[in-house]
Amino acid sequence: MSIKQVFSQGKAVIPYLVCGYPDLAATEELVRTLAEAGASLIELGIPFSDPAADPPLIQRINEEALAGGVTTDQIFDLVQGLRTKTEIPLAFRAYANLVYKYGTERFLARAAELGIKALTLPDVPYEEREEFAMACSQAGVALTSVVAPASAARIEKIAREAQGYICLSVPPGFNGFDWAALRRGTALPAVVPLGGSSLDQLGETLSRADGVIIDAEVMETVAEHGKDASSFVYNCVKNIIHRVREMGMGSAV
Questions:
Q1: Mean of the per-residue pLDDT values of the chain
Q2: Does the pLDDT of residue 141 top 90, yes or no?
Q3: CA nearest 5: which of 182, 167, 164?
Q4: d(C-alpha 7, C-alpha 122), whole Å
Q5: Confidence class for position 117, pLDDT limits 50, 70, 90
Q6: DSSP reduced 3-state for 194
Q7: Which terminus of the chain, N or C, has fewer Cβ atoms within 10 Å?
Q8: Could you tell me which residues come within 8 angstroms of residue 42 by beta carbon, excluding any fewer than 6 positions away?
Q9: Exposed/middle/buried for residue 123 (C-beta within 10 Å: 0-12, 13-18, 19+)
Q10: Residues involved in catalysis
Q11: Handedness of CA 117, 122, 125, 128 (dihedral sign)
């Protein structure tokens, strides 16, 4: 399923997992659980030693996953195994230095071979994305753009060069995002992180977005229940999906 198809089915609900936490076997089970719960696409986080763009809980989870010995190659192997068990679309979230040290072309070739749809690099500003964007385009993996509140000109500029989908970085309750500038730059879908907020707190931003990323909610549940988190994560995500549908949030593409 392509990214376009993911967003053609209504407002997308995109859970996020840090791979290798509490271990890789648990990650595999959680991916399959999220697919069964009805997730539209799953973002898989590759643990990094300095995940400064993430909140404290997810920073700690990155540290614990690395302490457990998880490697990028093991995560590639995990995805390869998952491909025989689920067809859920997958994306990677990673930090630029990790991809660079692995070898950007090598990393993206392996990701493309495994059917990874997109890559988010939260620490790469617009001015430094060109090298990664070119490599992603050549590999056939969309490099998403992270867009924060900014001037109309900057939002439009970032949007114009976006691939796949756009990740909005907005605080809970912020309703002043310049959607007109975004839409002047691109017709690509835009998603907003739930980030521990309620759907209602996101207000107009969520009503105008094409989907929601649920990261804090999923990882808090995993942190609380560890290897027994599967059923709790299922209920968490299922409830959010139901709430999104209940609020009548059809596709905004």
A1: 92
A2: yes
A3: 164
A4: 21
A5: very high
A6: coil
A7: N
A8: 14, 15, 16, 17, 31, 34, 35, 88, 89, 90, 91
A9: middle
A10: 43, 54
A11: negative
